[in-house]
Amino acid sequence: MGTLLRAADAFGAAVALSDGCADVLGPKALRASAGAIFRVPVLAWDDVPGARVALVAHGAQSLHELDLSGPVTFLLGAEREGLPEDIVADSNYVASIATTGAAESLNVAVAGAIALYERTRQTDLVADSN
């Protein structure tokens, strides 16, 4: 959780947590966030903006193929279980991060950081073309 908070801070993103998520104010998260918890807005789960993009480990459209230039919320699941099926079904898009190595999947913090980077990359490309 702390690493995700640092990534959100680096990319100017907010965080929203559903019921049962890790505690952003727990000792491990506070320590790992390196102070980011005090800078990153924490939204109510029902108040997340834009299209909801469920990130899954395999079998979905590649994240870089989606248009992420508008408001978007990335949905990340638990390391082992992933996202609950009802959340995936309620998402606007389901995407995977293309990997080329032997890794079975990425951990949640890495996946979140890559998704935020891809959104920033696409937003910067749109701004540069205007």
Question: TL;DR of this structure?
Answer:
The protein is of the alpha/beta class and 130 residues long. α2 links the parallel β1 and β2. It is built from four helices and six strands; from the N terminus they run αβαββββαβα.
Structure commentary:
This protein has 130 residues and is an alpha/beta fold. α2 links the parallel β1 and β2. The strands form two sheets. Strands 4-6-3-5 form a four-stranded parallel β-sheet, covered by helices on one side. A two-stranded parallel sheet has the order 1-2. It has two domains: 1-47, no CATH class; 49-130, SPOUT methyltransferase, trefoil knot domain (Alpha/beta knot). The chain has helices at 2-11, 27-33, 85-89, 108-129; strands at 15-16, 42-43, 51-55, 61-62, 72-75, 93-96. α1 (2-11) runs parallel beside α2 (27-33) and α1 (2-11) packs parallel to α4 (108-129).
Helix content: 25-40%
Biggest β-sheet: strands ordered side by side in the sheet: 4-6-3-5
Strand runs, count: 6
Detail the poorly predicted runs: none
List keywords for this structure.
single chain, 130 residues, alpha/beta, Alpha/beta knot, 2 domains, 6 strands, globular
